[in-house]
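hey can u check if this looks right to u? its 117 residues, i copy pasted from the old doc so theres a chance i mangled smth
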Amino acid sequence: MLLFALAQIVPCESSRLCPTKQQVLEAVIERDNEAFGSAAADLSSLDQDMELVKTTNNPKISDIACVDADDTSELAVDCRYTVKYRTFAAYEIATLKLIAPGRWRIASYKRMTRRRQ
């Protein structure tokens, strides 16, 4: 039971590199904003009369677990986590790279989504 409680507090296998819950969430939001910006630019280049509008969506993140990435040449971790958006949940496995102290970027990811009820 104590081991399970510790796993909930410390999301990483090693303390050498370990993003916080807030840092992972910030990386997810940054990635989503970049994807939205790219989609909006593509849409506006196709049709000048259309505009893509993003509604405020504050995702929640949970179930974070990270291990050191296989690639030891860069400061990176492989993480799995759940992102809960307003209408769906995304289960993701991602490689996060440290780009500045306390700042992470999602280098690659795989996602499975499920509609929320």
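Strands lie at 60-68, 76-84, 88-100, 103-115.
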